[in-house]
Amino acid sequence: MKKLLNLTFTALLLLTPLTLSGYAFANNFSFLKSEPELMPVDQAFAFDFKQEGNKVTLNWVIADGYYMYRDKLKFSVNGAELGTIELPKGKPHNDEYFGEQEVYYTYIDIPVGLKQADENGTLSVTFMGCAEGKLCYPPTKREVTLKAVAANDGLLVSTDNAAAPSASNAEEASAAQAPTQPITQQDTLSQMLSNDSLIWTLVIFFGLGIGLALTPCVFPMYPILSGIIVGQGQKLSTAKAFTLSMAYVQGMAITYSILGLVVASAGLKYQAALQHPAVLVVLAILFFVLSLSMFGLYDLKLPSSWQEKMNSVSNNQKGGNLIGVFLMGVISGLVASPCTTAPLSGALVYVAQTGDLLQGFLALYVLSMGMGVPLLIIGTSGGKLLPRAGAWMNIIKTVFGFLLIAVSIVMLGRIWTGVVSDVLWSLWGISFTGYLMHQNKLSAFNWKQTVRSVLLTLALLASFSYGFQAVMGHFGFTHSPVATATTTEQAHGFKRIKSIEDLEQEIAAASAQGKPVMLDLYADWCVACKEFEAITFKDADVLIRMNKIVLLQADVTKSDAVDVALLEKYNVLGLPTLLMFSEQGEQREDLRVTGFMGPKEFAAHLDHLVK
Hints:
The longest helix has 29 residues, at about 240-265. Strand 8 and strand 9 form a beta hairpin. The chain is α+β, with helices and mostly antiparallel strands. Helices cover about 55% and strands about 15% of the residues. Helix 8 (about 240-265) packs antiparallel against helix 14. The strands form three sheets. Strands 1, 2, 4, 7 and 10 form a five-stranded antiparallel sheet that branches. It is elongated, with a radius of gyration of 36 Å. The protein is built from 24 helices and 15 strands.
């Protein structure tokens, strides 16, 4: 037994080194069991692409623990010609093989421009990546099949580190430091609101508001405020005129700003609701009733007992003036609300995308105050420059009464276009010139009176002729411009569509013909929409370009469910809005037009759509 134990002990001594060495060997290669295997290159760097017109976006989803070299990317084409390639900036990486490198982690998008491409042409990209601390994969090539692309400049908006695709394309890529695709003004202003210089941005919006003060949407406010100032009587000081004007402008600005936030947050349908015929008729009646006070039919004021109480509160100002004028400003904000401009759209887009109501309100408010600067000047000067006594004062009040009636016609013109609106303007012109002719006869006879008589007679004939042609044209007896060019569809070859399905069908048909598409979103209450019809769409240079485009129009005046669905699909926040689609049927968001654009500017804009 003792001998057996000795043999067993001896055997254990002999086996121990082998056992320890085996444990050490297994321990040294334990990573084969504890760590996952390296991924295939397709899994480590999942590749995909998307083509939109002349831009092909290549993207990779990069697995955790892997990275891809920026400067190892190579591009080539077959049956196509490369344009600009924008390589995003990578992250610094100290590589044991290549030294300091820029690499990509997690995800990467690379926009590639095409100057032209044949159908089924190909774009090839070669890339190289590594597994962190393990190994690097050999260069890997991926190939994508292209859709046909018409000849173009091949340029995209460049980034700070845009790189050339290859040596042969270095010159084209380096030339891409300036964007050639248009960036709409509303998008630029929206981006300005997103930056850190809020004060400077608000200053710019204030200046843009001053420019908007000369647009048709603000014109009705001049007779409203002037009529208020004139109606205050003969003891109106400059300080009081300024106070009343400021109260009016504040009412307009606050209303305009709040309505803008409502539209940006809840959609265009709420703005359209304010243009409902019932609302417009009420406003028209209101301004007509106010005009009667200018004709001396009644005095618009509070009861004397109320006036005495208000006098003690408002430092001896006429009872209720500030409150009443402020409320008139609120109503005037409704008058201007359907007018969409690029600055307004920029603020609306910013609010819709960020939800920042405070900054959006500030932008809209300073824009409105800029619009109110001329109103302040006119209102304040009215207290100092307008006649205070005598027959001239009565004449001026009557003139402003006619101007308030003109505001009523503007309101009704959003409901009844064509012959009804034309007849109303004709009657207004006949009445106004008739009154001026009567007053002119009462003045002393001299050469000035004779000149005024001739001019007023011509104005009277023109007013009568305008209405006569409108009526005759409506019944088919003449071929006057008033009668024959009442709608965009008749005058410019626009085809009416209603729904999203109609639009998609027309875009598909246009793509089959290789033509771009322009969709005009129109409403009867949109003043600038009618400016497009009357001015821009009639221009010869614009017509040359429009003849190469499929022209569509959607009338969203009723703002029913189908209209709202169309507006919401394309994120339309105001009218007029023109949507552009390429020959491939892709929407050109960069070419969207919001707000009125003159003929020369619009023709240049269409050049980006029509190659």
